[in-house]
Every structure is written in structure tokens, then in C-alpha cells.
Write a structure and sequence with these properties.
The protein is α/β, with parallel strands linked by helices. Helix content is 37%, strand content 18%.
Length: 277
């Protein structure tokens, strides 16, 4: 099982290039970052974590810019979005950005996706909250078509385009992994329908055997080999017994949480977390 980290990279936390180098030097496999284009000041949508929304949500860097910098200063570290809010993104532009990052990183990019929880944030981008999952699915499928086809087209409810040319194509074939975040049965159905991986949150993945059995059941019902789906635990607790359970049950990757703090706080944390490698 691979071990990596995720962090909200901000204008006040450790620089993402320094973090990326430090991760690779210590033997971590991957770096994932989340996305919020902005946070509406009205704050109508409650934060799912409860209480006040943490400062880093409105300060986080653009994920593709940040991950490009991280990839540029490393050679082995895999870089990914955890998660990219496709409900707030044009699929043609996002396909281009992701393919460019995969090319420039030498095939080290993974596209973690989700629909999001902040209704007014996605509404600012033209997506209605009640359609968010349908929008996300269509945009993900359209992105994959652009990556794969020399003359891509897509005709759905929310995404419509006739034949287009768009290069570069990703280095990874058939495509960079598309990993869907979430834990519900609807998430698992979408995972087995069109994704390469599943990204549940650690706080909802308390029993690795039971959770991987849920994934296996949905894969079996869809006639898909569960081995073709790589599971990444987002925000895994750094506890040996939990990590051993994940390894024993076929989890592909566990991501530890890093706070949005400066180098003096982060680098000692990496040294401690590296003991689990």
C-alpha cells in the first residue's frame, strides 16, 4: 500500500514546491490537494465539518498550478486532486489542463473528482445544487473522451460539443486515473460505472474489511473486476492497526492529513509520518 499526504496549500502555508521535495526525499508516494475557486461571503451552506469554516478554504491555491509546481521539482512523486470540483469547471478546459499536467509530469497525475457541498459556490459557476451529481458525471465522461479520442464529441444533458481537436493527450494510457470521492451507495455505483478509483474519507472508513466488501459487492453487481478499482483513503488516521487493516484488505493508498501551516510545523510532521512507510 502506498502512503501520501493531502494539504490545503495556501498563501501562508509551506510552499508547495518545498513540500513536494520534502515528501519525495522521505519516500512518500503522492501529494493530493483540494479545490475551492472561492468561498461566497454569504456562507449560506453549512460546512460539513461543523462549526466555522476553516480559513484555508478561501485561501487555497489553484490545484493545477500548484501541482504543476510540485511535479516540476520532483521525479517520482505522484500528484493529484483531492478533489477537483467538476461542478465548477468547464470540461474542455479541464481536460486540457489535466492532460498538460500529466504530460509535463511524465505521467504522474491523478484526477480526484467530486460534486461539492457549497451550493452558492457552484451556483456562481452556473451549476444548480440539485443537478450537481449529473453535471459531475457528464463532465468526467466528456473529459475522458477528450483525452482518448483524436476527434472527441459528447452529447449529454449538460455537456454538448461536436467533434473537437485537443492536444496534448495524457501520457498515461488509457487515461490518468479518475478517482471519485464519497461514501454513499450512489458514489459506489458511479465508481464502478466509470471511474478508476474510489476515494472515501478516513473518518467513514473505520472498518476496512467491511468497506472493501461494499465496494466488491457493487463491482460484482456491475460485472466489473474489483481489482481494476484502486481505493485511496482520504485523511487516513496514522495508526498502525488501521493501516495494517487497509493493507490486508487491498487498499491501494492512504493519504495523511497535513494542516495548512508553515515549514517549521510541517517538516517535523513529515518526519513522524514517515515512520509508517
Amino acid at each position: 500500500m502506498h502512503l501520501g499526504v493531502y494539504i490545503f496549500p495556501t498563501d501562508y502555508s509551506i510552499r508547495i514546491d518545498e513540500l513536494a521535495r520534502a515528501l519525495e526525499e522521505r519516500g512518500f508516494e503522492s501529494l493530493f490537494v483540494p479545490e475551492h475557486t472561492h468561498i461566497p461571503a454569504c456562507r449560506r451552506s453549512p460546512w460539513p465539518g461543523g462549526g466555522e469554516l476553516p480559513r484555508e478554504y478561501s485561501h487555497t491555491l489553484d490545484p493545477f498550478v500548484g501541482l504543476a509546481v510540485a511535479a516540476a521539482v520532483t521525479t517520482r512523486l505522484r500528484v493529484g486532486t483531492g478533489i477537483c470540483l467538476l461542478t465548477e469547471r468547464d470540461p474542455i478546459v479541464t481536460a486540457k489542463e489535466a492532460a498538460s499536467l500529466d504530460l509535463l509530469s511524465g505521467g504522474r497525475f491523478e484526477l480526484g473528482i467530486g460534486a461539492g457541498w457549497n451550493a452558492e459556490e457552484m451556483e456562481n459557476h452556473g451549476t444548480a445544487f440539485e443537478t450537481r451529481f449529473r453535471v459531475m458525471c457528464e463532465r468526467a465522461k466528456a473529459i475522458r473522451a477528450i483525452w482518448h479520442d483524436d476527434e472527441a464529441s459528447y452529447h449529454g444533458e449538460f455537456v454538448q460539443f461536436d467533434r473537437i481537436w485537443s492536444w496534448p493527450k495524457p501520457v498515461q494510457r488509457p487515461n490518468p486515473p479518475i478517482i471519485l470521492g464519497g461514501e454513499t451507495r450512489h458514489t459506489l455505483r458511479r465508481v464502478v460505472e466509470f471511474c478508476d478509483g474510489w476515494m472515501p474519507r478516513g473518518r467513514s472508513f473505520r472498518d476496512p474489511a467491511a468497506e472493501m466488501a461494499r465496494l466488491r459487492q457493487h463491482a460484482d453487481e456491475a460485472g466489473r473486476d474489483v481489482a481494476s478499482i484502486a481505493t485511496t483513503i482520504f485523511g487516513a488516521p496514522p495508526k498502525p492497526e488501521f493501516l495494517d487493516g487497509c493493507r490486508a484488505n487491498g487498499v491501494h493508498r492512504a493519504l495523511f492529513t497535513l494542516p495548512s501551516e508553515g515549514r517549521d510545523a510541517i517538516l517535523p510532521m513529515l518526519d513522524k509520518l514517515a515512520a509508517h512507510l
